[in-house]
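Before a colleague's protein record goes any further, I have to sign it off. Thanks in advance; the entry in question is below:
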Amino acid sequence: MLLRTVLIILLLSFAVPPAAHAKLPSISADAAVMMDAKTGQVFFVKNPYKQRAPASLTKIMTAIIALENSNPSDLVTISKNAASVYEGQIINLHAGDKITLHNLLKAALIYSANDSTVAIAEHVADSEKIFLGMMNEKAKLIGAINTHFVNTNGYTHPNHYSTAYDLALITRYALDNPAFRKYVRCNEADVEWVEPKKSEKIYSTNRLLERGYPGIEGVKTGSTSAAGNCLIVLANSDGRSLITVVLDCYDRYRDTMAILDYGFNQIVSLDLCSVDHPSAYLPVRDGKESRVALVGEKNYTFDLLRSDLPMLKRNLDLVPGISAPVSCRQKLGKESFYLGDRKLASINLVAEKQVPRKGLGARLYEKIFGNQS
């Protein structure tokens, strides 16, 4: 038989560490996103879906395709086409040079060398055109649906574009690759040729690696006249990892630090539901105990901005009229959480322990004499 349920709406109050309520960061960037690297949850946006030239942030996708389809130890012979690249930063590759893919990736991700990305593409896919198809297909698979690449290095082109949100998605995906993470956190490196035998010192274009922002781990800069000054960064603090993307900035480093300060100070983690602490109690008829505690079927933690806390509420949807026996872990309701009208999650509530049925004698006595003491 179907049991009717009762709906209880309660405002939540949580003990969170005291901190001054912060205004949204004022930034010069035309577009920006702050995303949790672990969950993909977004905590700050400014024009997140506006299509813009990504400049050398493109090289993040170039590196993803190379790392997933080749081996860094591969030996690459530089073509005339790759050697002919001269715009922007280059490492002066010459036709016939032999250099490992590992060194080309260092040059692309640390120094932002434009000639190295063409050499990477030709080695991995035999042609830049095929490689670009792989880049665009990967973008779609990642969910970066407002992104399209027509080159491997970020040169300006009307059909070469992305968005702050898409670039955050691409970066989050790339950071799952340990080799990528190792490259982008380097402040300096040596690029070494196999033939001719030579070496060149390169330095990161990301000044935040030098300035020592707490927990910084790269990731990539980008600059062209069309794109402006752009930056993607990963930073860690107290177990939280945040990705920031800023596009077309007057001061990309100040903007990035302002967004990160805001995130690390204003995001709080709330234990909304627990397997150890009761969320509600239900009366039990004919039980050896008069009520049973309801706990979460699983733990549920959610991150919120402090400014969102007043909008947080929960619904308790409980099964009424429970009679013993009640078994341990028996499903007896559901706890749902909302941020305003947006549903965050629904967690089953289960009995914390079993409640046996009273013996026949005790039940007859109560029926005859009631609960007299």
Confidence is low (pLDDT under 50) at residues 1-11. Residues 128-142 form the longest helix (15 residues). The chain has two domains: 6-15+271-369, 31-249.
